[in-house]
Amino acid sequence: MTAAGVVTASADPGAPLPEAAEGVTRRLREILRSPRLVVGLCIVGFFVLLGGIGPFFVQDPNGITGVIYGHPSAAHWLGTTSIGQDVFAQLVYSTRASLEIGAGAGLLATLISIGIGIGGGYAGGIIDESLSVVSNVVLVIPTLPLVIVILAYTKSNSLTAMIVIIALVSWAASARVLRAQTLSVRNREYVLAARASGERDWRIVLVEILPNELPIIVSNLIFSMIFAILTQATFAFIGLGDPTLLTWGNMLNIAYNAEALSSGAWWWFIPPGLCIALLGMGLALINFSLDGLLNPRLRVYRARKPRGSRRQAAQA
Amino acid sequence: MRYVLRKLGFYLLAAWVALTVNFFLPQLIPGNPVDDLLTKMSQAGPVPVGEQQVLTRLLGLGSGNIFQRYWQYVDGVAHLRLGLSISNFPTPVSAEIGSAIYWTLVLVGTATVISFVLGIALGTLAGWKRGSRLEAIIPSTTLLTAMPYFWLALILVFVFATNVWHIFPAGQGYNTNSFINVGWNFTFIGSAIQHAILPALTIVISSVGGWLLGMRNMMVSTLSDDYVVAAEAKGLRPRRIMIGYAARNAVLPSISGFAISLGFVVSGAIAMEYVFSYPGIGFQLVTAVGNDDFPLMQGIFLVITFAVLGANLIVDLLHGFVDPRTRLSR
Lengths: 316, 330
Description:
The structure holds 2 protein chains of 2 kinds. By secondary structure, chain A is an all-alpha fold. Chain A has helices spanning 2-11, 16-33, 35-53, 87-123, 125-140, 143-154, 159-170, 172-186, 189-196, 201-237, 248-257, 266-294, 296-299, 306-315. Helix content of chain A is 75%, strand content 0%. Mean pLDDT of chain A is 79; it is low at 1-17 and 300-316. Chain B is mainly α. Chain B has 2 domains: 2-78, no CATH class; 93-327, MetI-like fold (Orthogonal Bundle), CATH 1.10.3720.10. Chain B has 14 helices and no strands. The longest helix of chain B is centred in the middle third of the chain and has 38 residues, at 186-223. The interface between A and B is large, with 58 and 64 residues.
């Protein structure tokens, strides 16, 4: 279907503008109709609302209610903990902190990867070689053991410290992808034209190269967010998070150590993990549908099904 | 040959970086960590002569300028002198790690191979039968991939071990309550396998989605390549096209993506072992963190890193063997 727009544009280069614009809107409409994107946006939107305005509506997450290991009820939607705190209130506050960590670390990692990936790829030569080796080394060194040892030594587990540490170990994969893309974009005609007309380097990077890599950057950002949330949850679970900061991982750590499992308090340890998994799924679904939009190869149907393409040809 | 040397050089460099990071980490502590550690050790038992020197050397805080200290540290690591564990004083760190590493190697190794093969096979089918019902499983794989390993482990324990059904043991590497000789006998191996099923299941369920998805996407884009169309035009049997033409080429990125994924699996396995109290290196790491056992922690970090680097080197060499193009590129 979308291939039709491409075909007409290339077949009739004389009047491409209105057709191309129409193709883009059509494609956008089609993407918005994709159930994956809608589901993904709904899930992520739900969590943003929950973390953003939820804390104004729930009770004190640390307040003790006197009901110990209470089952889910009207008063406590998700029951209570081993010392009688409201699990739902804790979940809402955790959502906020976990989102902050995901967004913060994801953004920071993406910024670093843009600097190193695009900067190195554009600069070329020895700068590129060395930055590329650095990214590859950071990429193969296993992240979590490193984070664990760093945290065990520094004992700094504030929100900011966690964001910085996670970002510092997770930028490399994106940087590698961006570098490869920059290497291929760098020698295209429009970049050469900009250089020939005397544009300054920073302007070429910001105006000519960066916008063309935006799709990859967005996709990397989403992956970094998922990664940051998972990583933080993991080390909070094994007891390296700030014990006073409510995050999903921290809730799981407290629940596990309070024997929530053997007490049968499923309402305590299932929701935080489910939130992590659902948010991750929502972000991944968004990423997928964007990928469908940005990577035409995934959309192309095989020659085996000639019917659709014939219809497209007729339309064109 | 040049390819092999290049890869070897790269992984040596990565190992050196890990070693150096490990050297500099203790410098982050203000004050003198050696004294803190020695105090802690002396509470556990008499501190042997020379432990102070070994510790200072190991933590990179020894005498002399930073280069001399660095050299002493590298020399120590090269001779597997990783100091003494504090929590299990005075066992050498290398012995501590040696007793745990086989559990992890066997468990994580087997589970990763099963997951990789399963994911590649399912991904091949999903990409081949694009648009069929098999596609419907893709959204659920994203849920599986986003699930934290340790949370899945908690649920498996809850459902299959402690609360709902009592089918599998909830923790440990083998039945420690009865008198079982650890070694090559059927009782021990049977018990160990029984205890490994839930941990292995955790790894397979959470990591299979990633392989599946990557393979499926590569299959879809490979299937639109000219040589596949040509093979179809030639009238080759679909099965042969799927495996011999499409899958063979589509699998290459998954193999080279092994590096990133393996680090992820190892990370997940650390928290997973903690849930199962599995006697592997991940559980040991978490315990060491809880006990402020810095020599053990650093030793484990080095061992995990070297193991991941080694596995990647092997995979890269295999990749060069499977795909001749990589050998030619610089």
